[in-house]
Amino acid sequence: MTSVRPVVAGRTDRARHQRPAPPGAAARRGRGARRSERLAPYVLLAPAVLIIVLLRLWPLLLGVNFSFTGDGDRDGTMVGLDNYRELLADPLFRGALRNVGLLVLLLPVAVAIPGLLATFIYLRVPGHRFYRSVYFFPAVLSPVIVGAIFNLLLAFDGPLNTVLGGVGIGPTDWLGDPDVAMFVVVGVHIWATFGMALVVFLAGFATLDASLLDAARVDGASLPQTIRHVIVPSLSRTIQFVFVTTMIGMLTSMFGLLYVMTSGGPEGSTYLPEYYIWIQQGQMNRPALASAASTVLFVVMLVVGLAQISLLRRGVREA
To answer: Which of 102, 125, 179, 262 is deepest in the core (most CB within 10 A)?
Structure first.
């Protein structure tokens, strides 16, 4: 006797209504998935790009456009390059640009100090625990506090000149001598800010291949040779980043020290573009001229930054 298998209700109906997928449907789904994968990075970056455009690039373009307008009676009137001609004719602004050149020359020193300290800490030379414990302390101080402290230390009758007088060296007017004041302010700025660069260098050392240092030690390489042929090429990206950020900090973050320590003096010898911009905007009520000076400062930072990156890359390749 033949047994009859029961039919599950609805199964034949579903089978009857199912149709084969049309030709090329799988290919279209694959192309759609690949298109979504390609668009995903742009969708994720879109909010950040929008914020940069609205809060950075658009105000920058407005400032550049404003630099071609006039001040005072010519407020809002297009004046062409008159503001830039006035800047080049102003001895204070020319002095500020010369000081920018001085900062560029002193920039390797500002980068070498935290770089060497980070190297000593990484190689665990004697005293590295002391450096690790105190290096970041100046970075948490306000520039106003730092300036006030060094005003007391560097006063003509202050502790530093007293110590120098005790060893037979005559007193120096550290903040009143036009030939010395700018170097003093830059030195104070380096002391107050090198902690951040040191943190970046230590982060770079965390990615350094320790086997390279071991190989250099086995080959009998000295510390200078190890730094030049192993550490510098391995940390080239970190060094480039520190160079650029340190330069930007020296050109745009020294206002507090300048205001407290020298107020641009003596004889305008410590003027920097950012201090000049504040004078024109805040005291002289000339926003268009200040915008022109800001545009010049931006161009200078861009050119110097690109030149530094190019030179550093060439130096790393030669090393």
So the answer is: 262
